[in-house]
Amino acid sequence: MKIAILSPFYPFRGGIASFSDCLYTELSKEDEVEAFSYTTMYPSFLFPGKTQYVDNPDSGKSKASTVLSSVNPLSYISAAKKINKYHPDILIVAYWMPFMAPALGSVCRLIKKDIKILALVHNAIPHERSFIDVPFAKYFFGRCDGFIAMSQPVKQDLEQLMPHARVLLNPHPIYDQYGDRFHKAEACKQLGVKPEKKTLLFFGLIRDYKGLDLLIQAMSYLNDSYQLIIGGECYGDFKKYQDLIDASPLKDNIKIFEQYIPDEMVSPLFSASDALVLPYRSATQSGVVALAYQLELPMVATDVGALGQAIRESNTGIVVEEIAPEAIACGIKQYFEVDGKSSFLPGILSEKKRLSWSSFAQSFRKFAQDL
């Protein structure tokens, strides 16, 4: 099968680029695959972080042709021409937010009709919603022949927007590019935290819906035997979180890495930690969970989106029913009372084996052939 993927790729950073690179690598084992990327994703004045690019692009990553500017309509035409010239059987288009929908919908309307378009939907409707979400999404989705969703909530959102859509539900595969877990004491030494403490990790982009403020407040209900590592770049002003940290009785037990986390830093952060905490106010799915499975770290998570159900069914952590600081603190205490790392490791290892990139690719191939 001849496949094209239109998505952010390296040197763009972030979960979508990492996911697409892994998918490209796996599909290339059996199929002819070409990667098409962006020249511009966001104008710099609209981007909430420090930079859209990795500092040192890995020369081993997939080589993508840069063809699409999200804000330049002329590029929509040229991008479609280049994809049509390649003439794949299937065009996979990564979708995660409405801002990209006008560009993606326009490109797809210029794609030859015999090329099947399959949307890989990370989020059908964003967590932080606005009035443009539904019409923009429908503009792009209306030209797609099929969809891949990686969680039940995303599938449900898709089916509400497109009632007759053909949707493949295929769970998020496990990442494999971040190295192995190593001894906690060594990782703590690298990070400058105390190895004898019960170590909690908040990891990933810091956005309001992810509830870092709730976790910082939850630290007030824990004693001095606990410490928290925060690893991720803030989209917005970190000051409100810093104010909560400064007011916390455990402020000296909170280590902050407010930055984009490069690949080589991921394993030390997870290896130093005893539990990954996901205090989300809302969620559909989370690539951070795939990281937790790869690096064998159980979780404490709020019962939102697909998180609670997935963790319960796989027995990979504690699910907190109430989205509140005291409830999160109680869930953390419960985790250590049941010796969470030992109790939930079998479930983690089972998920790590089940959610392979090979399995994801084979499910995609069957779905694509059926289109």
Provide a compact summary of the structure:
The chain has helices spanning 15-27, 73-86, 101-109, 133-141, 152-161, 184-191, 212-218, 239-247, 263-271, 287-294, 307-314, 325-337, 340-354, 357-370; strands at 2-6, 32-40, 64-69, 90-95, 116-121, 146-149, 167-169, 198-203, 226-231, 254-257, 275-278, 299-302, 317-320.
Describe, in plain words, how this protein is organized in 3D:
Strands 3-2-1-4-5-6-7 form a seven-stranded parallel sheet, with helices on both faces. Strands 10-9-8-11-12-13 form a six-stranded parallel sheet, sandwiched between helices. The model has no long low-confidence stretch (mean pLDDT 92). It is an alpha/beta fold and 371 residues long. It has helices at 15-27, 73-86, 101-109, 133-141, 152-161, 184-191, 212-218, 239-247, 263-271, 287-294, 307-314, 325-337, 340-354, 357-370, and strands at residues 2-6, 32-40, 64-69, 90-95, 116-121, 146-149, 167-169, 198-203, 226-231, 254-257, 275-278, 299-302, 317-320. 39% of the residues lie in helices and 18% in strands. The chain folds into two domains: 2-173 and 356-370, 3-Layer(aba) Sandwich (Rossmann fold); 184-354, Rossmann fold (3-Layer(aba) Sandwich). The chain is built from 14 helices and 13 strands. β4 (90-95), α3 and β5 form a beta-alpha-beta unit. The protein starts with a strand and ends with a helix.
The helix fraction, in percent, is 25-40%
Strand runs, count: 13
Structural class: alpha/beta
Output mean pLDDT. Answer: 92
- Order of strands across the widest beta sheet? 3-2-1-4-5-6-7
The helix/strand order is EHEEHEHEHEHEHEHEHEHEHEHEHHH
Main sheet?
Answer: 7 strands, parallel
C-alpha end-to-end distance: 13 Å
**Which regions have little confidence, pLDDT < 50, spanning 5+ residues?**
none
- In the CATH scheme, the class of the largest domain would be Alpha Beta
| Count of discrete domains | 2
Overall shape: globular
Stated plainly, the CATH topology of the largest domain is called Rossmann fold
CATH superfamily of the largest domain: Glycogen Phosphorylase B
Number of helices: 14
Radius of gyration: 21 Å
Query: What percent strand?
Result: 15-25%
At CATH's second level, what is the architecture of the largest domain? 3-Layer(aba) Sandwich
